[in-house]
Amino acid sequence: MTQDFTRSTRRLRIGLIANRGHQDAPDSALVQLLRGAKAALQTLQPEMIVVGRTLDAMISHGLIDCCPVHERFPYGRDGGLMKLVSRVVDSDPARAVDAVIYLIDPVDPSSIFPEALALKRQCVIHGKPFLSTLAAAREWLELEAYALQAPVDISVDASLNSSFIFANEGIALIAHDAMKNRMLALAEKHFTLLDQFAHRYATGTTGGLLNQLAQKIKGQEAGKHWVQPFLSGPLGGDAQIAELVLDKQIRRILFLEDPHVARQHEADIQLLERAARTVTAYATVISDADGSDRWLSLLTRRAAHS
Questions:
Q1: Which residue is catalytic, options 238, 247, 268, 288?
Q2: Cβ atoms of 6 and 40 closer than 8 Å
Q3: Nearest to 155 by CA among 247, 35, 6
């Protein structure tokens, strides 16, 4: 179950890693994240579990003060990422991480190493946020700080191009077969929020089910085309949505994955995630059901201040 950080009696612990292409430049994603989220980090005061070279980059950029409480993990080549996977699943609250920020460069081959794929999978299984784009990490930190009554950081709105004004935004809603009922429950609970988006997109059966839900809530005609359905994922729906992400017509992707089944269209799923990571400062992917509920709730509250 995803932890409610507003009620936590201990310091929030976040795993942090960035691929090399997101570390070195003065305007790298890592630099943009730590500088841009400075106010949120001051509010949250997290302990960061940082994989070797990422910590080196923070030091070289003079950003270590953004995360004064931290633990160094080995370099990736020495098992640092593997150790981070272990901390995701650890049952000891003194060792476990609550969320992972992994700024993934889509052209870095290490992003598809087994430990990288396992890190995301275990986060989904254990209901912990896995944030693989700059936009996702920036938004998540802002929302969690806001949940602790921090003042709204209007710089987030500026850096993400007013992303909390949903009348200008598109969202994709995707769910594997075992997660479709969860998607419908989330959509019904957060219907008012989702209805604010200019455009809603979905793959295959999920789109039809969401339109049926919208007809029940809004009426037969008003809800008939509430979601624009694409092909099912295995037939190319993920690729259709990926194109809209790359064209910056879809900023947020809510993708409820079932990590317990073999998926013949795994390449399509990775294609969609890669599209989001290609426009890392723009797109957000949220994949676990419990975290999605919290994310949508905080989006509702935060949007009132945009």
A1: 238
A2: no
A3: 35
Query: What are φ and ψ of residue 220, in 5° steps?
Result: -60, -45
Sheet containing 170-175: order of strands: 228-230, 199-203, 170-175, 252-256, 284-286
pLDDT for 180-227, tens place per residue? 999 999 999 999 999 999 999 999 899 999 999 999 999 999 999 999
pLDDT digits (tens, 9 = 90+) for 24-59: 999 999 999 999 999 999 999 999 999 999 999 999
Q: Which residues contact 69 (CB under 8 A, 6 or more apart)?
A: 11, 45, 46, 47, 48
Is 0.90 topped by the overall pTM?
yes
Give the residue among 85, 77, 75, 101 at the shortest CA–CA distance from 22.
Answer: 101
Sort residue 29 into left (φ over 0), alpha (ψ -120 to 50) or beta. alpha
293 is catalytic: no
